[in-house]
Amino acid sequence: MAGLLDDDQPVYVISVAAELSGLHPQTLRQYERIGLVSPDRTGGRNRRYSMSDILQLREVQRLAAEGLNLTGIQRVMALERENAALRKRLADIEDAKNSTALVVWQPRRRRR
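RE: above sequence
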């Protein structure tokens, strides 16, 4: 539907993002400093979080509740990003392999 925001659209100020993620605003600032989340910035340098950022913050909170420290959480999230990128590459290769595009092959003429 036209007019709906996508999950990557940065719209939430830090107080709303904190409420939606269940974390304190200072925790969001700390997570940004160590690279667990990267909100966009407005011209006035105010943070704007997307729904993807908020879902990522919830995942950080879940991993922390399972006992991982911040370094472990960073590693898990890096591996998940790498896994997603590899899955996309594999899907692209499968799509290309299953393509119905017409390929024209013409043999080279042999020189005598």
